[in-house]
UniProtKB/TrEMBL annotation:
Coiled coil: none annotated. The keyword Transmembrane helix does not apply. It comes from Actinomadura craniellae. One of its GO terms (molecular function) is ATP binding. This is ATP-binding protein. Pfam families: HATPase_c_2 (PF13581).
């Protein structure tokens, strides 16, 4: 697995901006994250392949938040753009920043972050963060994918206009 970045976190410079969606605390968490990503990215005109990759990665992060931090309040899906990148993250209220690791004995789970690392070409990581909705402490697991600069700018513009997202 590609090691996550903790130092060059693109969300550090964009925390005040971007779209935020509070995700359900139940098993629909990943499905809702996928739907929100699809709706937002299709409106921005991204190619279907990019939309599908971002949906898969967001789903993996939402699944981890649901599985490992369910008792720490609702997770949040964060989407923003900048410098020719789409930045997507899932915040959860579990303050421990240790990410689950892969184990050959883990059965059907434990490989999701490998998928994220591969599809994001190593541009992913985690860091301590605070909820954008209520300020509670936790962590953000994020990834970045290249997009045309105009798309990144439109996502930033949409974020400024979005009320209640």
């Amino acid at each position: 697995m590609v090691a996550p970045s903790e130092i060059s976190d693109p969300h550090r410079r964009t925390d005040p901006d971007g779209l935020v969606r509070v995700l359900p605390t139940d098993a629909t968490c990943a499905r809702v994250a996928r739907a929100q990503v699809a709706e937002t990215l299709r409106e921005l005109g991204l190619p279907p392949e990019t939309v599908a990759d971002v949906q898969l990665m967001a789903s993996e992060l939402a699944t981890n938040a649901h599985r490992h931090a369910a008792g720490y309040g609702p997770p949040e899906l964060w989407l923003t753009g900048g410098d020719g990148e789409l930045l997507c993250g899932v915040f959860d209220g579990h303050t421990e920043c240790v990410l689950p690791g892969y184990s050959w004995t883990s059965g059907d789970h434990g490989r999701g972050l490998d998928v994220v690392a591969t599809l994001a070409e190593g541009r992913w990581g985690r860091r301590p963060a605070r909820s954008r909705r209520c300020g509670r402490p936790g962590k953000l697991v994020w990834f970045a994918v290249p997009v045309p600069p105009a798309v990144a700018e439109r996502l930033g513009d949409r974020a400024e206009r979005a009320a209640g997202f």
